[in-house]
């Protein structure tokens, strides 16, 4: 195969599963809503979206399915290096921007925070760790997040690890061994949930390995759904499956989490991925699903800088219920707007520039 043909094969984009794109946006909004509400209600049983954090597990499952669909039949031709380039171009521009926004929010938070407690050298080190996705849980006032300037980046760290394992091992693994690995990881996930009482861990130094358990099962399960061709044809449409997804996030947070959360992650989310891949999308929702899919990652990677400021505002001003509702609703609208600007002004142009440059090198 000549270089030009190889480059065309590497850079081609497959048709998307449009409803899955739309569900990605629903999950991203659920994460933002959950992060707002967990600041207000430290008792998660009082949080109407108390299981919003499970959106991360849905992301992981979706990722396994999409990676299998996008690369199973061409990673052998691409090679590992080109695969990694593809993933870095797709993911890392927003990792960097999220770190920059987090640093700015840390330094110039009008409602609190204590940047003076950290030396310039320590601040730079925390920032560089965030940019290069090196876990560095050293800030007690930020609950020892793995990435203090952009807390959600913990899931990107594990996403990168999953991509590495996919490139070297999982892409070559037969379905029987994939099923075995998925079953073992399911048992580990159940143990983690039983030990801790929930599946909320992974974001901090103290719960680091919980994140490993979460990505292992859900990524493998998504990959298994794809390779088993477990695509369930149905007429639920985008709205029907979106409602089913939201039901998982608003399910009650209770003493029974050690049973309900593994059920949602082990069975319900893979089922929703299978249904989403097989559902029929009506013409009226095509643009919504496309937009939802495109903006989901910018929302996820840029929202938390504002959340730290909201947390400091809430602690210092103690706003009432009506004021809180106004702030949170307005805040979510503004964060979606900011994510849209980031997508249009930064993320899409940067990725296009990097892709064009890479294409020029290949040809």
Task: Summarize the structure in words.
The longest helix has 42 residues. The protein has one domain. The N terminus is likely disordered. The two termini are 13 Å apart. The protein is built from 14 helices and no strands. The protein has 363 residues and is mostly helical. The protein is globular.
Question: What brief labels describe this structure?
Answer:
0% strand; 363 residues; globular; mainly alpha
Secondary-structure blueprint:
Elements: H1 3-11, H2 18-40, H3 55-71, H4 75-78, H5 80-108, H6 120-131, H7 153-168, H8 175-196, H9 208-227, H10 237-249, H11 257-278, H12 286-302, H13 304-317, H14 321-362
Helix pairs in contact: 2-3, 2-10, 2-12, 2-13, 3-9, 3-11, 5-6, 5-7, 5-12, 5-13, 5-14, 7-9, 8-9, 8-11, 9-11, 10-11, 12-14
What does the overall shape look like? globular
Strand content: under 5%
Based on secondary structure, the structural category is mainly alpha
Model regions low in confidence, pLDDT < 50 over at least 5 residues: 1-5
Overall average pLDDT: 95
Q: What is the element string, with H for helices and E for strands?
A: HHHHHHHHHHHHHH
Binned, the helix content reads: over 70%
- How many domain modules? 1
In total, how many beta strands?
Answer: 0
Oligomer: single chain
- For the record, give the distance between the C-alpha atoms at the N and C termini, rounded to a whole number: 13 Å
**Tally of DSSP helical segments:** 14
The major sheet is characterized as: none
Radius of gyration: 20 Å
């Amino acid at each position: 195969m000549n270089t030009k043909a190889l480059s065309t094969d590497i850079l081609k984009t497959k048709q998307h599963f449009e409803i899955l794109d739309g569900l990605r946006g629903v999950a991203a909004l659920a994460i933002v809503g959950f992060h707002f509400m967990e600041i207000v209600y430290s008792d998660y049983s009082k949080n109407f979206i108390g299981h919003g954090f499970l959106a991360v597990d849905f992301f992981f499952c979706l990722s396994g399915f999409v990676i299998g669909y996008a690369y199973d039949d061409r990673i052998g031709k691409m090679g590992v290096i080109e695969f990694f380039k593809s993933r870095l171009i797709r993911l890392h521009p927003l990792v960097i921007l999220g770190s920059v926004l987090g640093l700015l929010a840390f330094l110039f938070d009008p409602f609190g925070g204590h940047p003076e407690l950290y030396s310039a050298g320590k601040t730079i080190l925390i920032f560089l760790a965030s940019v290069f996705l090196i876990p560095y849980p050293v800030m007690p006032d930020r609950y020892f997040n793995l990435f203090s300037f952009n807390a959600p980046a913990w899931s990107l760290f594990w996403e990168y690890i999953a991509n590495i394992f996919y490139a070297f091992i999982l892409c070559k693994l037969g379905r029987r061994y994939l099923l075995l690995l998925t079953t073992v990881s399911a048992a580990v996930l159940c143990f983690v949930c039983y030990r801790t009482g929930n599946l909320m861990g992974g974001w901090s130094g103290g719960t680091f390995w919980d994140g490993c358990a979460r990505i292992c099962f859900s990524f493998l399960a998504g990959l298994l759904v794809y390779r088993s061709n477990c695509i369930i044809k149905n007429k639920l449409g985008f709205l029907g499956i979106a409602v089913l997804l939201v039901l998982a996030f608003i399910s009650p947070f209770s003493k029974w989490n050690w049973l309900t959360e593994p059920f949602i992650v082990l069975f319900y989310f893979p089922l929703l991925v299978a249904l989403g891949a097989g559902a029929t999308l009506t013409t009226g929702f095509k643009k919504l699903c496309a937009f939802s899919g495109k903006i989901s990652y910018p929302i996820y990677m840029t929202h938390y800088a504002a959340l730290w400021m909201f947390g400091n505002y809430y602690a210092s001003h103690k706003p009432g219920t009506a004021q809180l509702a106004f702030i949170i609703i307005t805040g979510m609208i503004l964060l979606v707007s900011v994510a849209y600007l980031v997508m249009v002004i930064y993320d899409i142009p940067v990725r296009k520039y990097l892709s064009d440059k890479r294409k020029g090198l290949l040809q």
